[in-house]
Write the structure tokens for this entry.
Amino acid sequence: MRILGIESSCDETGVALVEVTPGASTPPLLRSHALHSQISMHQAYGGVVPELASRDHIRRVLPLTDEVLAGAGCTLSDVDLVAYTQGPGLAGALLVGAGVAVALGAALQRPVLGIHHLEGHLLSPFLSADPPAFPFVALLVSGGHTQLMRVDGVGHYTLLGETIDDAAGEAFDKSAKLLGLPYPGGPGLSRLAEHGNPQAYALPRPLLRSGDLDFSFAGLKTAVLTQVKRLLSADLSGPLPADAALVLGDAVRADVAASTQAAIVDVLVAKSLSALTQTGLQRLVVAGGVGANRRLREQLNAACARQGIRVHYPEMHLCTDNGAMIAMAAAMRVQAGLWCPSDGVPGHSFAVRPRWPLSELSAVGV
Ligand code: KG4
Ligand code: ZN
């Protein structure tokens, strides 16, 4: 069975083709995937502009689909199921992927399946050479979400804790902006941090000892802002001077970046370990864009190795949004018997879910 997956929830258009044999135990196979990142388009605005995102998805999705089919040596008529990101995400951007998927389904007379974006991230490590086994604790760290989940199988997700304000990716992005780095700031901040001292500045580790598995990163951004103003001897109640990055200089910026990254990573590592202790599980899966962060990987690997816990990550290039994880999540749903051909028979109406708690999925098809 060939599954075409379409991702368009934010600023990446991703398309992929995954092959799966329903009922067999052989893992789904990624045949081909293609991605277009809109990052350079949004950089001029310092963040994602939803209307521009939707328009660009419209431009990219069909050429990417052609590229994926050619890469797999297939044509549209070889596709058996069309999967797309149904939510959460930007409403207009989601509507593009959903509209194209439903139109393809109707034209080809093939079923269509809406996938939860975070389920895609969560299952993306199954596309790696060292896939995990259920059950595991998942640390989902993206630009919009920071959650710890207990995962007992496909569709069996229990929320253990989540951020009460900003996501970890947002903390990276907002702090990076203060240091004059372009959007999205996570990768740039982490590169800058390589030359800095993580102990240079004492930044808060929010909710580190709260006893629960929730996160809070909004205060960290304020602490970074205050630290930068102090270094500039600027008015703490006034706006950040426009030339802040230039005046700070590269060495100090690197120290601030390293200290910020260390604060975020310390909290993510400590809470992940607490989740493992509380659940008694021996396996951790890290997914989402921040999962590409090198310090996070190093610190988690070291901490988990000390406790005999296995850690699994998606391939580096599949940490951020992509179509492969959407096609893979659909394939795993099919294989787990959570979807059957009579579901999702093509119609002409569809709905996206810009806000959609992952925990609601557990009730679907189980
Ligand atoms: O999962 P993703 O592609 O999109 C969402 O679903 O939100 O995650 C994007 C987020 C951004 O905040 C970006 O700055 C962050 O992941 N990110 C990183 C790194 N690579 C991407 N954060 C820290 N270090 C990285 N290497
Ligand atoms: Zn994402």
The first strand starts at residue 2 and ends at 7. The CA atoms of residues 157 and 166 lie 22 Å apart. The mean pLDDT is 95.
